[in-house]
Write a structure and sequence with these properties.
The complex is a heterodimer of chains A (about 425) and B (about 375).
Chain A: H1 12-37, H2 57-72, H3 91-105, H4 129-140, E1 146-149, E2 165-169, E3 172-183, E4 190-196, E5 206-212, E6 218-223, E7 233-244, E8 248-249, H5 255-291, E9 293-294, E10 297-298, H6 303-333, H7 342-369, H8 371-375, H9 380-391, H10 398-411
Parallel strand pairs in A: 1-4
Antiparallel strand pairs in A: 2-3, 3-7, 4-5, 5-8, 6-7, 9-10
Helix pairs in contact in A: 1-2, 1-3, 3-5, 5-6, 5-7, 6-7, 7-9, 7-10
Chain B: H1 13-29, H2 32-39, H3 47-57, H4 75-88, H5 94-108, H6 118-129, E1 135-137, E2 153-156, E3 159-168, E4 175-182, E5 185-192, E6 198-203, E7 212-221, E8 223-227, H7 228-267, E9 269-270, E10 273-274, H8 279-308, H9 313-338, H10 350-361, H11 367-377
Parallel strand pairs in B: 1-4
Antiparallel strand pairs in B: 2-3, 3-7, 4-5, 5-8, 6-7, 9-10
Helix pairs in contact in B: 1-4, 4-7, 4-8, 5-6, 5-7, 7-8, 7-9, 7-10, 8-9, 9-10, 9-11
Classes of the chains: A alpha+beta (about 425), B alpha+beta (about 375).
Bound molecules: flavin-adenine dinucleotide.
Chain lengths: ~425, ~375
Amino acid sequence: MTIDRAGIAPSTRVRDYVERFDRFLRDTVAPAEEHLADQGAGTPWQPALDDAGRMHGTVWQARREVQRRAAAAGLYTPHMPTELGGSGFSRVEMMHVEEHVYHVGGLGLGLAALAWTEGPGPHLAHVGEPARRRLLEPLMAAETTAAFANTEPHAGSDVLGMTTRATRDGQHWVIDGRKAWITNAHFCDTVAVVAVTEPGAGSRSLSMFLVESDRPGFSRGPDYPTMLDDGLTGELNFDGVRVPDENRVGEVGQGFALAMTYINWRRMCRGGMCAGWGALLLERAVRRARSRRSGGRPIGELQVVGHQLADMDADVYSARAMSLQAQSELDALGPFTIPLPPQARRLVSLIKVVNDEAFFRVADRAVALHGASGLGLGSVEEKLFRVARDLKIPAGTVEIQRNAIAQALLAGPDTRP
Amino acid sequence: MSEPTTRDLLYGEVEDDVRASARKLLADRCATDAVLARCESDEPYDLATWRTLSAELGFAGLLVPEADGGAGASAREAAVVAEELGRSVAPLPFLGSAVLATSALLACKDSQTCPQGRAVVRELLAALGDGSRTGTLAVPLSTAPGAGFPDAVRATGGCLTGRVGSVVDLDVADVVLVGATDEDGPALYAVDLPGSGATRHPVVSLDLTRRVTDLELDGAAGRRVAGAADAEVALHAALTTGAGLLAAEQLGLAEWCLDTTVEFAKTRYQFGRPIGSFQALKHRLADVWAAVSTARSVARAAANALATGAADTELVVAVAAAYCSDTAVLAAEECVQLHGGIGMTWEHPAHLYLCRAKTSQLALGTPDGHRATLAELANLPAT
Ligand SMILES: Cc1cc2nc3c(=O)[nH]c(=O)nc-3n(C[C@H](O)[C@H](O)[C@H](O)COP(=O)(O)OP(=O)(O)OC[C@H]3O[C@@H](n4cnc5c(N)ncnc54)[C@H](O)[C@@H]3O)c2cc1C
């Protein structure tokens, strides 16, 4: 089956977004970054940590301010459907947006202007009317932040192996369990938690609920220090937390599919993220190869250095090209439909595995070309190298992506590439 | 999994002597242009050289004890010969006859399950060992050491019927050892060739210097050399020895590719300078060198384990087979690529090496298969 694809060029509204984003970066973000630099709280990419190991409050607040102002400027939620207050951008459009944001935003506060894990995701399109007004709207306006709680200490790749339970009690659900490795665990106001509602029902055994952080029985666990060193990852405990049925997302038994909707969104975002950061690293590497001298000449004249640049270019260009192609095929298939056809799952996983691995090679070469300074703590290269190493694990490891691709290929004729 | 032990893997004096005489003879008789010419002739195997190697240097009977008429050497010396044969991609039935058939026979020497077969075993060991006859083992060349006993052939009253595909060196074998199921279960039979009821069907292989042939048996007479457990042990021993010594051959092949490419890089000029002065090529050759050096360590460890009957032989052989297979392909591919256009021509022998490397990568177990074996030996069963 061949898929009708939409074009992959940036649309008019993407070009408009880019212009507005650049203005926002100049007028709002740059002064905020300057101000933050004087606070002694570290940088957005290398924040100081508080006593509990969390991102320093000053850095967190600076990011929050950018989020709120980006939302007011209509920059925060271009990926969300228009009927929910977003801009309804397609995946191709979002890839251009993400690529631009990561390219020019670099590692700075500007990245916060576009919603990611902390903001509303496509899974939340499935909330009912009361929860939409009470919980989703504040997230869309960046008045609150979110977390997605799926992983548990003993259930990572094996999502269906989770043990957090949600039990119905009249018009309420009672949630018990512990979630691990949760991004934004320390600060989130609203958590989309995935829990078992029908043990033994396989991919229908889970449901998703929104839990407000002020519910009795909800508590935040310790920070998990990671290689990212951003003080944003931690544990969440649910100890008999009662939520009304209106906090349920989608149908009972749809939790796995909804978790995949969220996770697939993060996977698809790899395309623009790696294209943008990849371009940034390549530009910096070229500058370095021209300016750094060894044996009386620029290192760029050494063949092996030149070939490293060429290999970076090949990785950035090919990953970007395949991602745009795949996003456009996904737009035709419906990237967030439930159930998602095997062919779409294959494309999503291809985007993730190709980008994660290409970007890792790019970041590795970027460090190499910068020599010792590429290893300096706080340098763009060393931070993005750590990020690149991280990317291959969350949102489904690269091994799990290969499983998904193989399953889709083996699933039947409609998945023929 | 047992603890790795430290061993002396350096080549000893005897091994150096073996290498020197093998290299000299092969340079005289199996220079690459001669090998290339033979590929296109009606006689793809060089049996005259095989007989000289066997009669004068005793290479066919390296693994056969002196008491049985052989050279009484060990797998270490045999591995050195295999390296040299890999270097020259010589079209000789060493793998089929001196390694696979001979190892299977050696394992049957004291067979309790088939006392009347012992005389046959001795007769064949002597004949294969002095090169007066050549033999092979009837398994598809792709068979890994861990494969179960084959069930393709049945024997009734000493007559064998069945079909075995892609048997190495069968083309020139005077006797083939066949694993068959008879009245008492698994057994090993020796079938003389040519013989009535035994037909050979040549298969076109990528590797022009090592032929594979299908064997069709239709009531062919066989002499029983081992039964039941002995037959299974013999087959496993032959395949393990085969995989270990094939790794040595792959090492020799990779080394030839590296040496030849380094030499070429020094003498081929482009842009007014030797291509070896381009940094990118130097680094690639350095990578091949690193791989070949590692291949030497693991291949030597395998040969040593086979020679001493070490407890971890299976593990060491799996490491060598997995690593050397890929190294040979890497070295041969770099050889073709770095020779540029000339490397793509029929006249240049690089293609012989690439085709040998690629087919032997799949022979006696694939690298992935050997890694799966390693996983099992490390108590990490593959799913
Ligand atoms: C910085 C960071 C942020 C995160 N944020 C969140 C978040 O916000 N919300 C959330 O819910 N989770 C989050 N996670 C968790 C993340 O999704 C998991 O770490 C990931 O799914 C892998 O699970 P695991 O760590 O338990 O590894 P495991 O599942 O234990 O895997 C270990 C290894 O085994 C391999 N493996 C496992 N199963 C298979 C298989 N079937 N086939 C082949 N190989 C397999 C894996 O690929 C991996 O190499 C985050 C993790 C990190 C590091």
